[in-house]
């Protein structure tokens, strides 16, 4: 079976946040939770880059390791899901996840700790595919319809890639070969210049005197 | 013949010397020349960085924490990768659960061995016919309040810690989820009561728990564990005092870190909450180990030890043996009462209920 992964291409992401909005709308994510977010590094400085991040569906997921009730499971497609009927909302996955993917919906006692919510790779949950329960708890199940996650499907610059790890790494590798060699040869630094700088400046804008 | 030859050799020697001098000079100054040329050639911006590597170094926060900007609100949403979570995972799975399990297991095994070797510490003089008032009703209430809250929190906490390896095989995931959910809710709701109980215990018992002369002797003689001789001590002995201060300090740590863990909405961030969890877990396991010892002495380990906390009165001989400094003073003040008087004060019906030898200390 496939091993599903996300990959975000920082040279293409334009920080439009459409993936965030698409995810929230498609999955009817609880109030206060964003399963996906776009983070901009060096905002407003040379070398600014944006990345869209959500659950990375780790092959050896730390959230699954620390869960005291063992509610996480990996599907045959390599998607890491959790069972909200078993989850007790302790928040240990929130501490362990390096990407900040599992989050507390604010509906527990004192509006603190509900059952955790996280990206499902648009693959629903343990309930029957397309059942009302599944939709209420986890959002839509696009994978069962043969579609990829909506965030990646509607990415306007195709920065966000989703799919089988072999396929998307192949796509990304081809992009790197096409764009990367010339820039690396000229020795342009991410700190000093932008890949997107026009050709007339030789690809280096700030460092050239 | 010889002159030109000598001349020739001299000029040859000179030229060889000159060549050597030149070579030495070249060798001496060549690095400088080379360095100058190099610095002239090295223009800014020519260093070859791998742009992707630099970006990912920032993303992985390898050199310094880098927080990006994001439109998504919440705590630490600007952090792309936080590696401390992995350290915390390692702590919980590879250190806390196995080591914690061994510590609790070892304490129980050690106490079992100790019980088999030493047996129950008896009242050597036997039960006497007189008693001393030891704890007031309020003191006993405070003790059993913190005891029941602590036991509840300890058991629910241990279930959450060791449940996955030990209870899921017994109850299945769904069954254990119900237990764990109840434990988590109970743990969170009862937690603040422990802090309240801790404050009550602190103010009630702090004066008698200040270390004083004689405590060091008690420690040096191992509290009378080694050998049969009892070590003199006051109302509380050095061991009890140490337990009190452990309870105060470690208990506060557990209580306050617990509050941090209960309220993720305070927005303290993953790193701080993981740190709070580390303190909470280590402190709680330490306290549980100490309390197991405390319960052992109170129940099976020593005859007459629990009486004071149960009824408020302790046996006179027990007091003389274990807390002789306090007992002598109390007897001098005439606080000793007959068993019948105590029974009648506790509302037990006795056929003959003569007033006690001295009742003046009863109200205390």
CA radius of gyration of chain A is 19 Å
Strand order of the largest sheet of chain A: 1-6
Task: State the end-to-end CA separation of chain B.
Answer: 133 Å
- Structural class based on helices, strands and sheet pairing of chain B: mainly alpha
Describe the structure.
The complex is a heterodimer of chains A (209) and B (364). Chain A is α+β, with helices and mostly antiparallel strands and 209 residues long. Chain A is 25% helix and 12% strand. In chain A, the strands form three sheets. A two-stranded antiparallel sheet of chain A has the order 1-6. Chain A is globular. The C terminus of chain A is likely disordered. Chain B is mainly α. Chain B has a domain of 68 residues. Chain B contains twelve helices and four strands. In chain B, helix 5 packs across helix 7, helix 7 packs antiparallel against helix 8 and helix 10 packs across helix 11. The N terminus and C terminus of chain B are likely disordered.
Write a brief caption for the model.
The complex is a heterodimer of chains A (209) and B (364). By secondary structure, chain A is an alpha+beta fold.
What layout of secondary structure does this protein have?
The complex is a heterodimer of chains A (209) and B (364).
Chain A: E1 4-8, H1 18-27, E2 37-41, E3 49-53, H2 62-66, E4 72-74, E5 80-82, H3 92-96, H4 132-138, H5 150-153, E6 160-164, H6 165-186
Antiparallel strand pairs in A: 1-6, 2-3, 4-5
Chain B: H1 2-41, H2 51-59, E1 69-70, H3 84-118, E2 130-133, H4 137-166, H5 168-205, H6 215-220, H7 238-262, H8 270-301, H9 307-311, E3 313-315, H10 316-322, H11 324-332, E4 337-338, H12 339-345
Antiparallel strand pairs in B: 2-3, 2-4
Descriptive terms for the model:
heterodimer; A: 209 residues; alpha+beta; Alpha-Beta Plaits; two-stranded antiparallel sheet; two-stranded antiparallel ribbon; 6 helices; 6 strands; disordered C terminus; B: 364 residues; mainly alpha; three-stranded antiparallel beta sheet; 3% strand; disordered N terminus
């Amino acid at each position: 079976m496939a091993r599903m992964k996300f990959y975000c291409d920082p040279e293409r992401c334009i920080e439009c946040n459409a993936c965030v909005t698409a995810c929230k709308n498609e999955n009817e994510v609880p109030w206060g939770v964003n399963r996906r977010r776009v983070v901009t590094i060096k905002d407003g400085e040379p070398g600014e880059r944006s990345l869209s991040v959500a659950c990375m569906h780790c092959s050896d997921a730390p959230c699954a390791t620390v869960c005291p009730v063992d509610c996480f499971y990996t599907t045959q497609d390599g998607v890491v899901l959790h069972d909200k009927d078993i989850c007790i909302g302790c928040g240990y996955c929130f501490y362990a996840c390096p990407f900040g993917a599992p989050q507390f919906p604010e509906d527990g006692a004192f509006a603190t700790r509900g059952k955790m919510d996280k990206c499902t790779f648009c693959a629903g949950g343990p309930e029957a595919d397309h059942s009302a329960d599944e939709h209420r708890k986890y959002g839509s199940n696009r994978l069962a319809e043969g579609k990829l996650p909506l965030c990646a499907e509607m990415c306007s610059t195709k920065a966000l890639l989703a799919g089988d790890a072999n396929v998307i790494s192949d796509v990304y590798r081809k992009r790197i070969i096409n764009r990367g060699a010339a820039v690396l040869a000229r020795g342009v630094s991410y700190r000093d210049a932008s890949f997107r700088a026009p050709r007339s400046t030789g690809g280096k804008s700030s460092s050239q005197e | 013949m010889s002159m030109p030859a000598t001349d020739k050799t001299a000029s040859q020697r000179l030229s060889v010397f000159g060549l050597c001098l030149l070579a030495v000079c070249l060798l001496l100054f060549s690095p400088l020349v080379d360095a100058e040329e190099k610095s002239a050639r090295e223009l800014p911006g020519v260093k070859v960085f791998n742009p992707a590597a630099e970006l990912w170094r920032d993303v992985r926060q390898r050199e310094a924490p880098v927080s990006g900007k994001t439109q998504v609100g919440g705590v630490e949403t600007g952090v792309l990768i936080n590696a401390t979570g992995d350290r915390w995972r390692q702590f919980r799975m590879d250190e806390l659960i196995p080591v914690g399990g061994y510590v609790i297991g070892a304490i129980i095994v050690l106490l079992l061995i100790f019980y088999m070797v030493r047996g129950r510490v008896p009242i050597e003089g036997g039960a006497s016919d007189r008693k001393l008032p030891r704890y007031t009703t309020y003191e006993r209430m405070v003790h059993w309040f913190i005891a029941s809250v602590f036991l509840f929190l300890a058991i629910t906490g241990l279930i959450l810690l060791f449940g996955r390896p030990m209870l899921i095989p017994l109850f299945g995931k769904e069954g254990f989820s119900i237990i764990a959910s109840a434990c988590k809710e109970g743990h969170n709701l009862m937690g603040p009561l422990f802090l309240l109980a801790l404050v009550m215990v602190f103010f009630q018992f702090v004066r008698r728990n200040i270390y004083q002369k004689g405590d060091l002797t008690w420690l040096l003689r191992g509290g009378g564990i080694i050998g049969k001789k009892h070590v003199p001590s006051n109302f509380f002995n050095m061991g009890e005092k140490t337990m009190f201060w452990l309870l105060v300090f470690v208990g506060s740590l557990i209580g306050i870190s617990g509050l941090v863990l209960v309220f993720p909405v305070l927005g303290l961030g993953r790193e701080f909450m993981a740190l709070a969890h580390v303190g909470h877990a280590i402190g709680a396991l330490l306290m549980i180990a100490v309390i197991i010892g405390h319960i052992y002495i109170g129940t099976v380990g020593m005859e007459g030890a629990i009486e004071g906390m149960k009824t408020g009165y302790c046996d006179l001989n027990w007091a003389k043996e274990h807390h002789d400094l306090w007992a002598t003073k109390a007897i001098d003040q005439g606080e000793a009462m007959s068993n019948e008087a105590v029974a009648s004060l506790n509302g037990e019906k006795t056929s003959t209920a003569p007033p006690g030898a001295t009742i003046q200390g009863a109200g205390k």
